[in-house]
Amino acid sequence: QVQLVESGGGLVQAGGSLRLSCAASGDTFSINAMGWFRQAPGRSREFVARISRSGSSTNYADSVKGRFTISRDNAKNTVYVQMNNLKPEDTAVYYCAAHPSVVLTQPKYWGQGTQVTVSS
């Protein structure tokens, strides 16, 4: 089993920045892809960003391209997402996810979520 714990959420003004972190523990050797999803009130959960085990492959939702950057430190079993130029529509609960394969379409492991609120 793998446990994921997010941190770094909070309240920020539009145009500001936040960095979310997600620390993995447990059977971390089994993890390949890691990434982030988000869920805004009244909406379904959506993909935000994904990074491969080596870090050489990344993917982003169109809505965050050019503003969010995902990275990972395998020595610390931690994945990050740097969020710049935040917009009110980025307000959501952000969830860390991890999966044993290279894809992250249906992650096996989920964190508990961290709230990000962007004020206008």
Arithmetic mean of pLDDT: 97
What is the strand tally? 11
β-strand percent reads over 45%
Based on Cα principal axes, name the global outline: globular
**Number of H/I helices:** 0
- Structural class call reads mainly beta
Rounded Rg: 13 Å
Element order, helices and strands? EEEEEEEEEEE
Low-confidence stretches: none
Q: How would a crystallographer describe the biggest sheet?
A: 7 strands, mixed
Measured distance between first and last alpha carbons: 40 Å
- Report helical residue fraction: under 10%
Structural account:
This protein is mostly beta strands. The chain is built from no helices and eleven strands. The protein has strands at residues 2-7, 10-13, 18-26, 34-39, 46-51, 58-60, 68-73, 78-83, 92-98, 109-110, 114-119. The strands form two sheets. Strands 2, 4, 5, 6, 9, 10 and 11 form a seven-stranded mixed beta sheet that branches. Strand 7 (68-73) and strand 8 form a beta hairpin. The chain is globular, with a radius of gyration of 13 Å. The termini are far apart. The relative contact order is 0.32. The model has no long low-confidence stretch (mean pLDDT 97).
